[in-house]
Amino acid sequence: MDSSPAVKIYTAKNVREELQEASCDFIQASVGVSRKGRLLVAKMIHCFAWSFVDDSNLAVWISWYLQPHQAAFVEQCLSQRRQSFLGSHNCRILPFDSRFCYLLRPEEISP
Predict the structure, then answer these.
(1) Quick one: pLDDT at residue 17?
(2) Which residues lie below 8 Å from residue 107, measured CB to CB, with a gap of 6+?
(3) Which of 40, 64, 95, 107 is deepest in the core (most CB within 10 A)?
(4) What CA–CA distance (Å, rounded) separates 47 from 42?
(5) Distance between CA atoms of 50 and 55, rounded to whole angstroms?
(6) Alpha carbon of 54 to those of 11, 51, 100: distances in Å?
(7) Measured between alpha carbons, how far is 104 from 6 in angstroms, rounded to an integer?
(8) Residue 28: how many CB atoms within 10 A of its CB?
(9) What phi, psi does 65 have (nearest 5°)?
(10) In this predicted structure, what is the pLDDT of residue 8?
């Protein structure tokens, strides 16, 4: 999981849609589940989400950006635990990693 979103060039005509897509891509790539069933969340997502939701609703907010099967898994964990992820120590905020990383999407690589 990477700590920062990919750097992209956006078009003026579709900037809102492109930013929404970039948000989804980053959240999907930056959230995981540990072997113990803990939700792993990048620090940048946690800091950004703090403006919109409190920690008890973090998992639900994140699930809005996930693929349906990923969101279903998070919802299943929530219903099984019957507690907030952070309140029950079932969520881990991953520290920021400042190392530079190249990100090449398959459609951007020419054969």
Answers:
(1) 94
(2) none
(3) 40
(4) 9
(5) 7
(6) 33, 8, 30
(7) 9
(8) 14
(9) -100, -5
(10) 78
Structure tokens that stand for 45 in this block: 């997502």
What type of residue sits at position 51?
A: S
Buried b (16+ CB within 10 A) or exposed e, 32-53: eeeeeebbebbebbbeebeeee
Can you give the pLDDT at residue 48?
84
| The residue type at 39 | L
Instruction: For residues 86 and 106, give the distance between their C-alpha atoms in angstroms, rounded to a whole number.
Output: 35
Identify whether the C-beta of residue 42 lies closer than 8 Å to the C-beta of residue 1: yes
What number of H helices and E strands is found in the chain?
Answer: 4, 3
* Residue whose entry in the numeric block shows the structure tokens 């919109």: 52
Strand locations in 1-111 (E): 31-33, 39-42, 91-94
Type and span of the H or E element at 24: helix 15-30
Whole-angstrom distance, CA of residue 3 vs CA of residue 1: 7
